[in-house]
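Deliverable D4.2, example record:
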Amino acid sequence: MARTSAARRTAPVIYGVDRMVRNVRTGRFERSLAGLTAIGSLVTAAEIFFEHDKASFGNRLMWIPVALGPVGAVAGVAGVFSKRLAKTALPIASVAIVANGLQGTWLHARGIAQKPGGWRNLRYNMEMGPPLLAPLLVTMVGGMGLLAAVLRREK
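Output generated by the structure prediction step:
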């Protein structure tokens, strides 16, 4: 029985989803996610460096996410090439990144509260103060590394 033209048009979309599910089942996605964690760690560390440099690194804790970027990148690359490191080094680095992202969210919220008007002047202080949601992006990069560590590895 021949496929209709509508079925042919939707087949690549279904195939794409099926392919992604197959990659998760076979373990290929674990290596890809470890690599994405490495890239995400470097990109976010660079962005954090520039943003914290704008603030003159006024708090010593501002250096921690900058330093964790290369750590996450090395662990992510190691996770691409080594199953053992994907199950040990990558989750350790990722937990540190997640913890630092949550700490950063708390510190940014505290920074907004310390601005004139605090939370009562939320709209202005959200725009002019430390970006409240930015540390959560770092937390997502760490979460990708944790997810990669628990996924099945390709044989």
